[in-house]
Design goal:
alpha+beta, four-stranded antiparallel beta sheet, three-stranded antiparallel beta sheet, 22% helix
Length: 237
Amino acid sequence: MSDCYCTLRDDIPTPLDNLRHLFELNRIPVVTPVPTALVDEQPCYEIDAQRLTEAQVQALAENLCQKYKDHPELPSLEAAIAVVQEGLPIGKQWVAGVGGGAQSAATLMDFDEDWFSGSFQALEWFEAGDEEPPDFGACCACRQEGSTVRNFVSLTKRALVPGTGWGCIVCNLPSDGALAVICDECLAKSAEIQDTCHGYAATKERSPLAALTEDFDHDHALHEAEIAAFVGAAHDS
């Protein structure tokens, strides 16, 4: 199960401002550390319904009913709850940053030594129902397309398009880290990455890996402190 979360921006109003009190430390669980969908041409994260409490699901559903009370597809609270349980999108424009606990920190990638250790596998994202998986375009390693192109790799290089990649609220990094998306087969054999996402992964555009010239990486000392605090809190509980 993912341990990624996003935090809401404080400098502008967001659609979830009235629910901030329900999320400890302003942390809303999300499925992936990068946007995986476009809604009204806006990149969106997916709220991880599996990690929501019943109270949070109820509150998000009531919030939907209030916002779309005249919408024909949300005629009841039960229907709104079903929407939340399927994975509610949250626009990147409302998000201040994305982070994670020990699991996310453990998958940080060393671009120069072992990119495979930093891959973020998406193999379990699409198991619910008969939903079609998102189309992320060509694999950044073998350049083949298909439904198995679903595994994100966070590169320790700065993306060519600012604000469209990975970031970290622990290190106070903007979402400027480059991303690659690879297929299951290339993930399994640690295939060499050839390209990177040019802009958001959902746009399917690519740029050569060689075009990335600026380093971009976590402050690992800060993550060691976060992991220690996380483990300590778990032990105390």
